[in-house]
C-alpha cells in the first residue's frame, strides 16, 4: 500500500538526509526512494526549491574525472527541518490516534 505524501514531508526527508551528511543528487534520490516512491526527475526541482529558499547550498567536488554537485544544509535549513519535524510529530500522533482507535479530543 502506498500513501500519497506531500511536499512538506519530502522536504523534511531531504533536509534530514543532508543534515546527517552532505549528499549528491543520485545518492539523495536513492535514500529518499528507500522511504517513498519518487523519481530522480521529481527530486531535482525539490532540491532547487530548497536551495532557492536558502535551506540548501551546493558545492562541486571532483569524482572520477567529473564534478559531483553536493548539497549541504544551511542554518536556515536546520531551523526549517526542526519546524517540519514538530509538524510531523503532531500529524503522526493524530493519524495514529485515528488508526489505532484513540481519542482526538484529548
UniProtKB/TrEMBL annotation:
User: Pfam families recorded for this chain?
Assistant: PadR
Residue span(s) of domain Transcription regulator PadR N-terminal: 14-81
| Alphabetized InterPro entries for the sequence | Metal_resp_DNA-bind_regulator, Tscrpt_reg_PadR_N, WH-like_DNA-bd_sf, WH_DNA-bd_sf
Q: PANTHER family annotated for this entry?
A: PADR-FAMILY TRANSCRIPTIONAL REGULATOR, TRANSCRIPTIONAL REGULATOR, PADR FAMILY
In its UniProt entry, what is this protein called? PadR family transcriptional regulator
Write down the species. Lysinibacillus macroides
Amino acid at each position: 500500500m502506498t500513501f500519497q505524501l506531500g511536499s512538506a514531508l519530502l522536504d523534511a526527508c531531504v533536509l534530514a538526509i543532508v543534515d546527517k551528511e552532505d549528499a549528491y543528487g543520485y545518492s539523495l534520490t536513492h535514500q529518499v526512494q528507500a522511504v517513498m516512491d519518487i523519481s530522480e526527475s521529481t527530486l531535482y526541482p525539490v532540491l532547487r526549491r530548497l536551495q532557492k529558499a536558502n535551506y540548501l547550498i551546493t558545492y562541486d567536488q571532483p569524482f572520477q574525472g567529473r564534478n559531483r554537485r553536493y548539497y549541504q544544509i544551511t542554518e536556515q535549513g536546520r531551523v526549517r527541518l526542526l519546524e517540519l519535524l514538530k509538524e510531523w510529530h503532531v500529524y503522526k500522533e493524530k493519524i495514529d490516534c485515528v488508526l489505532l482507535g484513540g481519542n482526538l479530543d484529548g
